[in-house]
């Protein structure tokens, strides 16, 4: 049986013009290189080199065999590249369930980019703030906020350190005032949303003195978190939801953050699968893609926050009016 590794050592020896130099280039022992060529000669039942105490050169048979040896090595390389290309180029269907706000305002554009990279991939998107039952519904994965309640599912972190943010439009704060602490929320119009038939209330905060929940109230509730965010942008009340969803509005000044980020409830973002058998190449590459996009979004936002803070700090103070 002819071994491709032996053929590679034969070709390398021809190019290096010695066993010792070929062995050095391949990072193997010289004796191993010599034994490989001898093994190949035995398999071919011919002498590939004419050896003497002072020199070594290709035999006539070796010269005839050399182009075929190189062709076999080229075929192996082409096969490896074809397999790698097949793994990078995804096909088939990708069936996802995603939350409304994150899905509509951020994920849609990212999925466009992902599918353009893999045009043979067919995308089936379910956009809803109802928790999909991955074990019973025809879905490959779901994007979800929060900790898993079902430990049998597989959670792949997209953003582990994400938190909610308490925000309001400048127009609302001018009209109703800015809450000084969490207890003040009881006197504000708090816009709430329903997630999978459950109202997101009370609101949890992680304060320096410990966790605290506050029962809030307001005149608007929706089962679509995107609608609740839009109400907040319109100045209708306070919103308390994932920072990732709010970043475009925070950067544009449409919303203002009220409490320090560390005081708000953790809201990790995960890619969820029913079991490990669902971790297909499409899901694995989607995970890597979304992790990179989320990290870039957050990095850009925090750089924006730092730059804005530096600009405000560097502004000259207004002179006090003369009396």
The geometry reads as: elongated
Secondary-structure-based class equals alpha+beta
Classify the helix fraction into a percent range: 40-55%
The span between the termini is 102 Å
How are the strands of the biggest sheet laid out side by side?
4-3-5-15-6
Number of E strands? 15
Radius of gyration, in angstroms, nearest whole number: 32 Å
Task: List low-confidence stretches.
Answer: 317-323
Average residue pLDDT:
88
How many helices?
A: 9
N-to-C series of helices and strands = HHHEEHEHEEEEHEEEEEHEHEEH
Strand content: 15-25%
The profile of the biggest β sheet is: 5 strands, mixed
Question: Describe it for me?
Answer:
- The chain is of the alpha+beta class and 323 residues long.
- It is built from nine helices and 15 strands.
- The longest helix has 34 residues.
- The C terminus is likely disordered.
Question: Summed up, what is this model?
Answer:
The chain has 323 residues and is α+β, with helices and mostly antiparallel strands.
List the topology elements:
Elements: H1 4-16, H2 19-26, H3 30-44, E1 49-51, E2 56-58, H4 60-88, E3 92-98, H5 100-117, E4 121-127, E5 141-145, E6 154-159, E7 164-168, H6 170-176, E8 192-195, E9 198-199, E10 203-207, E11 210-214, E12 221-222, H7 225-233, E13 239-242, H8 243-252, E14 256-257, E15 269-273, H9 281-314
Parallel strand pairs: 3-4, 3-5, 8-12
Antiparallel strand pairs: 1-2, 5-15, 6-15, 7-13, 7-14, 8-9, 10-11
């Amino acid at each position: 049986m002819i071994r491709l590794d032996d053929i590679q050592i034969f070709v390398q020896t021809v190019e290096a013009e010695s066993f010792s130099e070929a062995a050095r280039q391949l990072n193997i022992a010289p004796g191993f290189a010599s034994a490989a060529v001898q093994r190949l000669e035995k398999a071919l039942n011919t002498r590939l080199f004419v050896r003497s105490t002072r020199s070594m050169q290709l035999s006539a048979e070796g010269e005839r065999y050399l182009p075929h040896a190189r062709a076999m090595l080229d075929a192996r390389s082409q096969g490896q590249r074809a397999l790698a290309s097949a793994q990078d180029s995804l096909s088939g269907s990708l069936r996802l369930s995603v939350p409304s706000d994150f899905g509509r305002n951020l994920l849609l554009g990212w999925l466009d980019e992902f599918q353009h990279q893999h045009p043979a991939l067919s995308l089936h998107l379910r956009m809803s703030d109802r928790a999909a039952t991955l074990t019973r519904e025809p879905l490959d994965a779901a994007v979800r906020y929060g900790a898993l309640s079902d430990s049998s599912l597989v959670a792949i972190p997209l953003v582990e350190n994400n938190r909610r943010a308490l925000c309001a439009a400048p127009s609302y704060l001018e009209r109703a005032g800015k809450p000084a602490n969490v207890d003040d929320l009881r006197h504000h119009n708090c816009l709430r949303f329903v997630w999978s038939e459950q109202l997101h209330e009370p609101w949890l905060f992680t304060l320096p003195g410990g966790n605290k929940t506050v029962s809030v109230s307001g005149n608007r509730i929706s089962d679509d978190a995107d609608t609740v965010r839009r109400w907040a942008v319109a100045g209708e009340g306070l919103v308390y939801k994932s920072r990732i969803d709010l970043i475009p509005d925070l950067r544009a000044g449409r919303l203002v953050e009220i409490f320090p980020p560390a005081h708000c409830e953790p809201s990790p973002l995960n890619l969820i699968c029913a079991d490990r058998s669902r971790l297909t190449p499409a899901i694995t590459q989607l995970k890597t893609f979304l992790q990179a996009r989320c990290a870039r979004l957050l990095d850009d936002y925090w750089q924006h926050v730092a730059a804005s803070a530096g600009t405000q700090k560097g502004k000259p103070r207004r002179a006090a009016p003369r009396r």
